[in-house]
UniProtKB/TrEMBL annotation:
Highest taxon of the lineage: Eukaryota
A Pfam family recorded for this sequence: Peptidase_S10
Protein name: Carboxypeptidase
GO molecular function terms attached to this record: serine-type carboxypeptidase activity
Lineage summary: Eukaryota, Sar, Alveolata, Perkinsozoa, Perkinsea
Native source organism of the sequence: Perkinsus marinus (strain ATCC 50983 / TXsc)
GO BP annotations listed: proteolysis
């Protein structure tokens, strides 16, 4: 847990930052997981564009049993991981009541395209039941998310493709089918509940890319779809950014998440910073 560095007129927001799912953790991946944190590389120097200038950051290792989280690795998918995380959040808010009622945002990158829709939908569903403590979910942001893989189980079956995909370990392999399941289908309920959704991607990530995000947004079936498709389009590009935007373009990422929290994303100031430069390989 990293508390906000300074107060402002805005209400504090709680941000759960879900790191990308990787089998091995090397230097770049550690920077990716903690790229929004005020400290990097175990130094006493704070980063200029830390997200905790805008919100309290709560980092979560999940699924249960990974990293510093407590519990056996027994769940087989993102939905079960969401159940565990929801219980952990309930205990957190019950213990630290000073954060109750504050705007709550969930952010993450890469495999968070599965994790975040799952936990956000779980929170929304439990809130509709009146479960306490109530989590004031206001929005979610997914960067370069693995959300709806082009290779789907139903497509494999229709094509008669029986090729087996194997991950690098037995435990990671338990998530194999989870990787192919679409999770963008959970977003319409959240949008209909007026929960903000931000999908962003670096222009140089060719796997979890902005083209796929655009397709997901246009094809999504929800009550506001027609109005969304007919609304004016404004392009905001973060150049020279790959799979982890906050690492490659920390200033633009900080401005983006700040405007997202403020509800001002899309104003000219944001566009100016995010559009600097030109795409280069």
């Amino acid at each position: 847990m990293r508390e906000r560095e300074r107060e402002s007129r805005l209400e504090q927001a709680m941000v759960v930052d879900q790191g990308a799912r990787h089998a091995r953790l090397h230097k770049m991946q550690k920077r990716a997981i903690f790229s929004e944190n005020p400290f990097l590389e175990s130094t006493r120097n704070s980063t200029e564009y830390s997200w905790n200038t805008r919100a309290n950051l709560l980092y979560v290792d999940q699924p249960a049993g990974t990293g510093f989280s407590v519990g056996p690795f027994v769940n087989n998918g993102s939905f079960e991981a969401a159940d565990d995380l929801y219980m952990a959040l309930q205990e957190f808010f019950a213990e630290y009541t000073q954060y109750g009622g504050k705007d709550f945002y969930i952010t993450g990158e890469s495999y968070a395209g599965h994790y975040i829709p799952a936990i956000a939908h779980k929170i929304w569903r439990e809130n509709t039941k009146g479960i306490e403590p109530h989590i004031n979910l206001r929005g979610l942001a997914i960067g370069n998310g693995w959300m709806n893989a082009a290779i789907q189980k139903d497509i494999q079956k229709k094509l008669g493709v029986d090729k087996k995909f194997k991950d690098c370990s037995l435990y990671v392999g338990k998530f194999s089918m989870d990787r192919l399941a679409p999770f963008d289908t959970l977003l319409p309920d959240l949008l209909d509940a007026e929960i903000k959704v931000l999908l962003y991607a670096g222009d140089q990530d060719y796997i979890c890319n902005w083209i796929g995000y655009e397709h997901v947004a246009d094809a999504m079936d929800w009550p506001g779809r027609d109005a969304f498709l007919e609304a004016p389009r404004y392009e905001y590009e973060i150049y020279r950014a790959g799979h982890f935007v906050p690492i490659d373009q920390p200033e633009a990422a900080h401005l983006m998440i700040s405007d997202f929290l403020d509800g001002t994303l899309g104003r000219s100031s944001s566009r100016a910073v995010m559009s600097e430069g030109s795409p280069e390989l």
